[in-house]
């Protein structure tokens, strides 16, 4: 399975900055041994998709509503993301879980909505620092997986320890290996043989200097990159560190 290097731009990217990242990605993406994805803010999805049309770089959203349309002021549906040119959507990012009170049940409903709209969902899970210090990281992540993934799930999972996001800190390779192994076993328990086909991304302070080590860890199927995805050269540097598969 090819590794997936996904960029989460979060709430960054006015028109000029978005085009300034997307253009070099379009030009630099040829011949990479991994799949590339960028998830700009809603307002830039259509313009970034136009810039990347015909290139191997896919476009995704960062969140979606559970409904296809309706009286939901300020929300964006998965069908709208697809209509704007997205083929993926991130759901259940820890910033949504923490800042918007998103529960596993809501994340599962969003995942189902994404699939219904033809998008590939990237479902995020990960423990807080306090949960890891208390030795509860597998219990927490196991609960998020069983609560957030619908039956028949065939998308992507991203393991992002909350304490590693935007902090410059990363787990050890041994800790990443242990958690990704745990997630793989949980996926197979939950989904049967199909659980083997789900890519498990690592996210949290991935940058060009640590990407090769993290991407070489067993069961790491790619990376979900925040800060470093806002610089095309850094993002491509991470992509060049991907393991060909
Ligand atoms: P970071 O963010 O790479 O800036 O740590 C990762 C994420 O939140 O997906």
Summarize the structure.
With about 240 residues, the chain is of the alpha/beta class. Helices cover about 40% and strands about 15% of the residues.
Give structural notes.
By secondary structure, this protein is an alpha/beta fold. The chain has one domain (4-240): TIM Barrel. The chain is built from ten helices and eight strands. Strands 1-2-3-4-5-6-7-8 form an eight-stranded parallel β-barrel, surrounded by eight helices. Helix 5 (104-116) packs across helix 7. 2-phosphoglycolic acid is lined by residues 8, 160, 165-166, 203-206, 224-228. The site of 2-phosphoglycolic acid has 13 residues, from strand 8.
Helix and strand pattern? EHEHEHEHHEHHEHEHEH
Task: Calculate Rg over CA atoms.
Answer: 17 Å
Residue windows where pLDDT falls under 50 for at least 5 positions: none
| Count of separate structural domains | 1
Task: Kindly name the structural category.
Answer: alpha/beta
Structural topology:
Blueprint lengths: L3 E5 L6 H14 L6 E5 L5 H8 L4 E5 L16 H7 L3 E4 L2 H6 L4 H13 L3 E6 L3 H5 L3 H12 L7 E4 L13 H19 L7 E5 L4 H8 L6 E4 L6 H9 L5
Parallel strand pairs: 1-2, 1-8, 2-3, 3-4, 4-5, 5-6, 6-7, 7-8
